[in-house]
Queue: 2 jobs
Job 1
Amino acid sequence: MTDLRDDARRAFRARFGHPPQGIWSAPGRVNLIGEHTDYNEGFVLPFAIDLRTLVAAAPRQDRVLRMASTFDDEDTVYLEVPLDALDELQELVAGGEASPLEWAAYPAGVAWALGRLGAGLDAATGVDLMFVSSVPVGAGLSSSAALECATALALDELWGLGFVRPELAQAGRMAENDFVGAPTGVMDQTASLLGAADAAVLLDCRSLETELVPLGLGDAGLEVLVIDTGVRHDHASGGYGERRASCEKAAVLLGVPALRDLGVTDLNRAEDKLSTETFHRLRHVVTENQRVLDAVDALRENDHAALGALLDASHASMRDDFEISTPELDLAVEVARENGALGARMTGGGFGGAAIALVPGDDVSRVTSAVDAAFAEHGYGAPEVFPVVPSPGAARDA
Ligand code: ADP
Ligand code: MG
C-alpha cells in the first residue's frame, strides 16, 4: 500500500507538475457466490480484496477535469474535459459499441453521474486525477469498479457533496451502464465501497439493503485463492448481454417482475412455459439465489465445508445451465478440488477471467503447482494463482 501511494504521488507530479491534495483508493472484489443474480434483483455475496486502485487528486482553478493513468506513457494526460461538456460527451458515447474514451470513460462517467444524481456541479472546480492500480484488468476482479469507486470517493470529498456510499455506488453503476455502455449491476461498486476486513457483503439487489457477513477464514485456517486463467472478456459486448436478455425474457414469459420472484419450488411449472435453453438460464438464476442464502447460513454456522459444496454447485450451474464457463475455468476448478480445495467456482461475469477456490492454508502450494502443471499439460497459457484477503472498502489514504 505504501509503495502504491508513493507511486501515485510521483506519477501525479510527473503528469501535472504539482503535488496532489489527497489520495483515495477503492478495492477490487471477488464474488464469493451469486453470479448473474444481480440484474435479476436477487442476492450476491462479494467481498472487497487487498488489491486496490488509487487516485491521487487535486482541485484546479478552472472547471476542467484532467485524467491520467499509469496505463499510458509518463507524459500522457489521457483526457481533458470541461465539466460543462460532460452531458454532451455522455450523449456522444451513449449507445456506441465501445466508448472512444477507452479507460477514461469510467472516471468521466462517474463525474457525469454525480451531476445526474443531483450533485449540482455548477459551482464545482475542475480536478486533476491520476490513477495507479494493483487490480488486474479483465480478470473478474472488477478493476472497473475499483476505478469508479476511487473516483467517486475522491470527487465526493473534493466537491463537498456528502453522498452516502450507496449513492456513490449508484454513480459507479451509472458510469458503467450509461457512459461505458456495459449493462452491469451495482454489486461490484457495493463491495468496493462497503466491504470490511474478513467479511463479505450480502447485497439484496432489489432493496439494495446490505449486511456484512463475517467470513471467519483466518480462524478456520482457510484462504481464498484466485486462479486467473488469463483469458480475457469484454463486458460491453457479447455473451453477457445475451444472458441478461434471456433472463428478462424468462421473467416476462412467467409474468414476474424479475427472476428474483421465483423460488426453487417454481421450477417445475416454469419448465413447461420456456424453451429448454431459456429454462436452463432461469434455473441457474433461481438456484444460485438460493445458494447465496444457503452460503450465508453456512457462514453463520461456521460451516466452511457446506460453503465449499455450495461453491461447487454454483460452478456446475454456470457451466451446464448458464453456459458461461470456459475449458480453462473448468480445469482450474477441477484441479483445485482434487488437490484439497473445499470448493471452487468461476467468479465474475464469465467467458474467461478467474476462478476462486476455498483452500486450507496447508494446501495452497499444492493447489498452486497442480493448477500450473495442469494448464501446461493442456497447452493453456500460464495461469496466475494468488490469495486474496477480504479487506476494507474504499477510503482516503493520504
Ligand atoms: P474488470 O473485470 O477488470 O472490471 P472491465 O472490462 O469491466 O474488467 O474493466 C476493465 C477496464 O477498466 C480497463 O479496460 C480500463 O478501461 C479500466 N481500468 C481499470 N483499471 C484501470 C486503471 N488503473 N487505469 C485506467 N483504466 C483502468
Ligand atoms: Mg468490470
Job 2
Amino acid sequence: MLMLIDDANLDNIRRMYDTFPCDGVTTNPTILKRETDKPWDTLLAIRRFLPRNAELHVQAISLTAEQIVQEAQYVLKRLGENTYIKIPVTGEGIKAMRLLSRDGVKKITATAIYTAMQAFVAAKAGARYAAPYVNRIDNLGADGVQVARSIHDMFRVHQLECDVIAASFKNSQQILSLCQHGIGAITASPDVLVQLLDHEVTDQAVEDFTQDFYDQCGDGKTMLDC
Ligand code: G3P
C-alpha cells in the first residue's frame, strides 16, 4: 500500500519524509490555498524536493472537459514524470478522463468520490487511481471504509487497471482497516500519518530500557562506549 502525504506545506512534507517511508504527495485547491505562495510556486517546490520516483497528484480546476484536458496536459508537462492529474468525477470530468485516456495519458486520479459507482465509471473511463473520501462519506452517514473496500474489490473482480487511493481520514484506524484489505494507496495529513506510529506504551518501554542501561553503565552511555 502506497502512503502519500495529503499536504502542500514543504516543511510538513520534509518532516514526514525525514521519518516515514512516503511515496509522494497529494494536493487539492483547498490544501494549496493554505500556503502563502501561489499554487505553481508551491507545486514546483514540492516537485523539486520529492524523489524522482515519488508521485505528485495535482487537481485540475477547469469545469468543462475540453478545458480539463488542456489543463491536464499543461500540468503533466510542467511537473514532469510521476505527476498525476486529479479530476473530479463530474460528467465533464469523466468525459475529460476518456479524452485523455484516448490520447495515451495514463496518470489520471479520479477524485471527490463518494460512491462505488462513481469509482467504477471513472476506472472504465481510464483513471489509474480512484480517490474515495473516507471521512467525508462517514460524515454523510455511510461507511467510508466499506465504500473504499468495495471499490477495491470491484476493481479486482472486473480486472480494471485502477487502484484505490483512499483519502480524507480522521484517524489511523480507518487506514489500518484499508491496509488489511490490500488497498492500493492511501493519502493522509501528517497529523494522521503520525498516529500510525505513535504509541505511548512504546515510548514508555524505550524510556525503561534506556534507564536500565544508564543505571548499569552510566547516564548517556550507549553500546558505543559502555
Ligand atoms: O485528498 C482529498 C482530501 O484532501 C479531502 O480530505 O480532510 O478535506 O476531507 P478532507
